[in-house]
Amino acid sequence: MMRSAGAKAPGGHLFAALKRCATQKLHAVWESHLSQGTRKMGHPAFVVVICCCFASLQAQNPMPEQTPTTPEPKADVIFVHANVYTGVPSNTASSAILREEAIAVRGDRIQAVGKIAEIEKLKGLQTQVIDLAGRFVMPGFNDAHLHLSNAGLQKLRVDLIGVKTLAEFRRRVLAKVETAKPGEWILGGGWDETLWPGK
pTM of the entire structure? Predict the structure, then answer.
């Protein structure tokens, strides 16, 4: 296979350093210890020099220590065989938005979303697995806002939110009547009669 000019083979730096080290040390051994006869057939000193160079390079460039990885906490619940709407743009012709197959939940947080094989790695002995059988899943919408003028007017009226009995309903209205001026309208709202007993 052809390499472009300037491209270096894998391990090129190591080979260059080894060659430089071996050449320097071998030259010294060659000149001082080898006879003309041993030059023709080689000499064990060459092997010794190569071994010394490897040891020297290893000492200068020790292998990085392997940091132990902490295993990811296991999920409390895993939903599989789902049609999960992620909101992430997809580059496929079949879908404009990326869909996934499984969801891992830990506590009150989504831990991971992805393929079933990936998500099942988070399965522990206590993990509950729920098969959604292809059902559609999408993020929830939490709308917490108010209209300023209406919110202010609501504070001036009788707050009947959460009332569960007729007696409580009357008590709240009476409390407002006692503070109202003569002829003032008593307004209120927000109750849910389906919370009342028997409804």
Answer: 0.41
